[in-house]
Amino acid sequence: MSSHQHAELPQVKPLVALSGTAKEGAIGPTLGLIDIGESEYAYLFQVSLPGVRDKGNLKCDIQRDGKVQIEGMISESQLLKNASEVYQVNVQELCPPGPFTVSFSLPGAVDPRLCSLTFRQDGILEVVVLKFGLPRVSAEGLSENWSNGWFQPS
User: Fold this and answer.
1) Which member of 32, 51, 64, 147 lies 3.0 to 4.6 Å from 74 by CB, making a disulfide possible if both were Cys?
2) Phi, psi at 55, each rounded to 5°
3) How many CA atoms lie within 13 A of 28 on its CB side?
4) Per-position b or e across 42-70, b if 16+ CB within 10 A of its CB
5) What angle do CA 87, 92, 96 make, to 5 degrees?
6) How many CA atoms, within 13 angstroms, populate the side-chain half-sphere of residue 104?
7) H or E stretch at 98
8) 23-33 per-residue burial string, b: 16 or more CB within 10 A, e: under 16
9) Rounded CA gap, 138 and 34, in Å?
10) Max alpha carbon distance in the chain (Å)?
């Protein structure tokens, strides 16, 4: 096998721990589903966070050993709004309001100082974090989302 080919490793589903409303979310869209991807230099993970409306309510703590913990708050809303109407909530099957925690581990060590966090409008938190032990890289030219693992208030 040449040095440019990688051996196919069996896919191992990461252990994901949920607490708060994430654990009780069986009545609506599942909170805390994750996808993890890997390149030569970084990991990308995406976490479903339906019901999170404000990225200011999110904290994403990434440890050097690859442990990730996401904490947040699902806002309570008695009113639903669209472009032209306001509706009273009669049935609530989406994630219940309250605090939640999603914890999992990436496949390897990372440099938590070098990560890019994006909270997409579809309720997906998308994070790219560089692997640990890579040659030093300059922050010049990195997108404004690159931070130390915390959302910067907009």
Assistant:
1) 51
2) -65, -15
3) 19
4) bbebbbbbbbbeebebbebebeeebebeb
5) 120
6) 17
7) strand 98-105
8) eebeebeebbe
9) 29
10) 63
Helix (H, G, I), strand (E, B) or coil at 141: coil
Name residue, tokens 């040449």.
2
How many other CB atoms sit within 10 Å of the CB of residue 39? 10
Please tell me the distance from the alpha carbon of residue 18 to that of residue 74, in angstroms, as a whole number: 14
Task: For 39-84, write each residue's pLDDT tens digit.
Answer: 999 999 999 998 787 788 889 999 999 999 999 988 766 556 666 7
How long, in residues, is the chain? 154
What token pair was written down for 23?
A: 């654990």
